[in-house]
Amino acid sequence: MRRRAVAVVPVVIGALALSACAPDRTPSDPLLVGDQLVAPSPAVSPPSSSPDGTVLPLDGPARALALDTATRTLAVAVDAKEIRLFSVDSPQTPPRVVPVPDKVTSLSPAGDGALFAAIPSANTLVRLDVRTGGTETSTVEGAPSGATVVNGQTVVSLRNRNAVAVLDGGKVTREITGFFAPTAVLRGAENDALVLDSNRTALIEVNVAEGRVASALRAGDGATNAVTDRFGRALVVDTRGGELLAFSPSPFLMKQRFPVPGTPYGIAYDAKRDLAWITLTERNEVVGFHVAGGEPVEKHRFRTVRQPDSVAVDPDSGKVYVASADREGIQVVQP
Question: In this predicted model, what pLDDT tens digit does every residue of 139-187 receive, in sequence order?
Fold first, then answer.
């Protein structure tokens, strides 16, 4: 498989320009790929066929997945308004169940054995202490879609407010505008956060300390999910374009663009092995790419459960966890 040629055109836009174009969804924005602002979705998967590894039963579709390495716990958000906590070392043991106000759409690391759970329908961000199962709930208007921590402050993407909120002590202290539909936020370099804007299909660098948008780059034809690696790069899945994109933090540039056919969607990163695991929703597969070199190199490929929208990886053992959004459970694969 040959790499698609990389054509990188940096688009650096100041905060005022971004803010000006956001409210009316102006299609002339240089980051937009077309006139319609429609976020991409995973493919509707075909029936699964003999998934590799083992499959843990789950009585419902999984909506989000995260693995906390400090507590060795796999967290799974399900439609029943709860988060289930499985022991990575004993996954067959019945999980602990943590009730939440409504359906969780994303789970992300909060540090020190905790996870953030975004609940957009309830305008709520939950910080879950994985060790105790205790929760702290913050009201964040605007449909929170993701969260991370930057210099001790919680940064939350707000899909319905076209903004990013900064929380201190669980309270919103500031909002940064200039987005179309921020769906995820990652910790960037130093004082920065990286915001994935799925409608604009752009990756946007935000200076949290100064409360402003720093710069922005197009992220393929339809970016959906992203993680950061140990080099500080953002690895972004372009679902609509069928690619894996890599963005360097300093300078902020797209460095790699690699074809991944099969409607890629979920992504997880193994820092010990430099493997990016990507689910292919059109094929019911998960693929592991080594990403430390000049271009990604495929190392593993496994059959999965149907509708593999979420994936997580345990860097200690290398085990990969794939969650079905179609009630087929949680798959565990040892490469």
Answer: 999 999 999 999 999 999 999 999 999 999 899 999 999 898 899 999 9
- Asked if 67 and 88 touch (Cβ cutoff 8 Å), the reply is yes
Residue burial 34-62, b: 16+ Cβ < 10 Å; e: rest: eeebebbebbebeebeebbbebbebebbb
Determine the straight-line distance between the first and last CA of the chain, rounded to whole angstroms. 22
Q: Which two tokens stand for residue 162?
A: 């076209």
Architecture, CATH, for domain 15-333: 7 Propeller (2.130)
Q: How far apart are CA 131 and CA 113, in angstroms?
A: 7
What does pTM read for this prediction?
0.91
**What's the confidence (pLDDT) of residue 295?**
94
Residue 148 backbone dihedrals phi, psi, to 5 degrees: -150, 175
Nearest to 148 by CA among 164, 131, 132, 129: 164
Q: Tell me how far CA of residue 327 lies from CA of 35, 55, 208, 299, 305, in angstroms.
A: 35, 11, 39, 28, 9
CA dist 205 and 202 (Å) reads: 10
CB atoms within 10 A of CB 259: 15
**Mean pLDDT along residues 74-97:** 96
DSSP state of 15: H
Q: Residue 62 corresponds to which tokens in the numbers above?
A: 């999984």
Rounded Cα distance, 17 and 59, in Å:
47
